[in-house]
């Protein structure tokens, strides 16, 4: 494993028309190129993850996993706007000499992919065997496959969509309302908005899981208790867990990025944009996902030329893309190891 950063001293133009005076990218790599440089696996991470994919996607990535450094050259880059090393709200703005905090410019998925492409060039990568990601990571993988169809050979899109839904935007806005209700949010401090972030994460958990998940995992053994419910303590725990490792300004920024996701923008619509993808594509839906329901993945599979669709049955809802690694590895392995003409459309 190699953890490193690259730095670009040139202005980084953003889709909004604004720019970053400079850009730093944090990334991890594992393994080495094969002789033809045809073994690159590029992972696009989701909302609050980092570039150490072996840390948050074990079972799918690791020494003994399906994607391993013996067979693959694996790359994962931290996204713009995050707080794990790539330029984001906690970075110093060269114009002021102070961190951006709430003044960080709006970032889109296309901006994230533009940074990935810059890193790929830096690493000498001309073609990518497989790009994959779930949720916001899947949005990036999809955007990249549209923007550079000849560079991407295979795409694996998990629990994601072509345009962020009003339902998803509403969840994100509710979380931002929690941030704004924290009187410290907006102050020039890395700790600003911590209470709001804790509440925002609690709201998010309701969309990442579902009724059945909570019924199976958070039901009190003593059904006659009058307070201190297991589900209550779970929400508190999950909220604080994120506060301990993430930042409210990055959370605000990246939630806005998801809201703006629309591969059809400036491309004559969703169907036309998805039709540009030439990579062999596997789309994976999760039966119990209430945030990115399977109809969104089925739409992708219908519109991407030759795409295959599978659906995994999981009680974990949207978080199934991080938890059900055995099922994912099986479907991905089957897809990548079968000739395209023999791989049939599957799923509901």
The total of beta strands comes to 12
Q: Classify the helix fraction into a percent range.
A: 25-40%
Please state the structural category: alpha/beta
CATH homologous superfamily of the largest domain - what is it? Alpha/Beta hydrolase fold, catalytic domain
Please state how the strands of the largest beta sheet are arranged side by side.
1-4-6-5-9-10-11-12
Indicate the overall shape.
Answer: globular
Q: And the CATH topology of the largest domain?
A: Rossmann fold
Total individual domains: 2
Low-confidence stretches: 340-348
The sequence of SSEs as H and E is: EEEEEHEEEHEHEHHHHHHEHEHH
Domain AB hydrolase-1: 40-322
Enzyme class: transferase
Organism: Anseongella ginsenosidimutans
Catalytic activity: L-homoserine + acetyl-CoA = O-acetyl-L-homoserine + CoA
């Amino acid at each position: 494993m190699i953890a490193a950063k690259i730095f670009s001293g040139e202005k980084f133009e953003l889709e909004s028309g604004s720019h970053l005076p400079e850009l730093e990218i944090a990334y991890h790599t594992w393994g080495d190129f094969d002789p033809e440089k045809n073994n690159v696996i590029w992972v696009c991470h989701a909302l609050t993850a980092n570039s150490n994919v072996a840390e948050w996607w074990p079972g799918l990535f690791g020494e003994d996993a399906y994607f391993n450094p013996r067979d693959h050259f694996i790359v994962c880059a931290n996204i713009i706007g995050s707080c794990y090393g790539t330029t984001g709200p906690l970075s110093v703005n060269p114009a002021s000499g102070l961190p951006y905090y709430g003044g960080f410019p709006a970032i889109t998925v296309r901006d994230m992919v533009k940074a990935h492409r810059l890193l790929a060039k830096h690493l000498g990568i001309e073609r990518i065997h497989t790009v994959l990601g779930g949720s916001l990571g899947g949005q990036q993988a999809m955007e990249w496959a549209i923007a550079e169809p000849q560079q991407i050979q295979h795409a694996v899109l998990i629990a994601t969509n072509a345009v962020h839904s009003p339902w998803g935007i509403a969840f994100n806005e509710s979380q931002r309302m929690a941030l704004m209700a924290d009187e410290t949010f907006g102050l020039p401090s890395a700790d600003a908005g911590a209470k709001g972030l804790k509440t925002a994460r609690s709201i998010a958990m309701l969309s990442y899981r579902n009724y059945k998940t909570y019924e199976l995992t958070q039901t009190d053994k003593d059904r006659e208790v009058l307070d201190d419910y297991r589900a209550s303590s779970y929400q508190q725990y999950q909220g604080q867990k994120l506060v301990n490792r993430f930042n409210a300004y990055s959370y605000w920024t990246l939630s806005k990025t998801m809201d703006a996701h629309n591969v059809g923008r400036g491309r004559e619509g969703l169907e036309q944009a998805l039709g540009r993808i030439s990579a062999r594509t596997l789309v994976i839906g999760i039966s119990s996902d209430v945030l990115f329901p399977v109809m969104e993945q089925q739409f992708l599979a219908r519109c991407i030329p030759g795409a295959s669709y599978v659906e995994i049955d999981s009680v974990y809802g949207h978080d199934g893309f991080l938890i059900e690694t055995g099922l994912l590895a099986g479907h991905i392995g089957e897809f990548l190891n079968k000739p395209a003409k023999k791989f049939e459309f599957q799923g509901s």
